[in-house]
Give the backbone structure.
Amino acid sequence: MATAANNERLVLVTDEHWIKYVRPIAVAVLLIAISIALFVAAGVTAYSAPVVAEVLFIAALILLLFTHHWLFMVLLSEDLDRIVITNHRLIRFHYYLIFSEDSLEVSFDKMKTVDARKQGILQNLFHYGTLYFETKLASIPLVPHPNTVSRIIQETMHTKS
Amino acid sequence: MATWFPTDFFSSPGMLTALVIVTVVEILSVGLMILNAHVFREQAGKYKRFLAELGGEEEWGKPGSVLLPLYSVVTVVVTLITLIVFFFQSYWF
């Protein structure tokens, strides 16, 4: 985990764009629909084929619980993800609960240029994009209003230098 | 004699095996929820301390303040509902 340096102060903290939640929620809805179908199938076969019914029930239960825990692990992890800009650096925190913890740090001593790009209909419609440092040496996706964030970073870089 | 509780679970090894599997899976599910909640609070605490070092504790935003309780409630509800459906499925279908 990063630690603050002397004379380091916070400039901006921002979350990633909400669109990051769309895909996991869509996948979870699909998997829950499949598990519900398996539960119904288990109920329908309960009298005619009880062994099959029990197998279907257990399969449905495992799929439902897996989907439930996976979805909340993703949501909780994304809830913790942040982009922190200080007067010395930019840090992007990325967590995945029990699986991984990752931070990308971009020092303003080493990176002097930042480029904001919004590509495609979705990114332009929903105002999010990617920040590129030193022409793609480092990049940070899913930044909301990337041009505004890029301007703040450039002002901070110039103030530091 | 009719009973309100389905006693056919104890009538065959297959049913008992299914009962054991379902019980174990439910216990593991609740255990995973507790583990995830613990890890989340730990990671959130590290992040909060880092912001505090930068003098930006007000930017904390309390992540997980809605999701964590929701996760716990949904886990318990799903566990109870699936157990009830498992025990009483032969009565309903």
Remarks:
- Chain A has a mean pLDDT of 89.
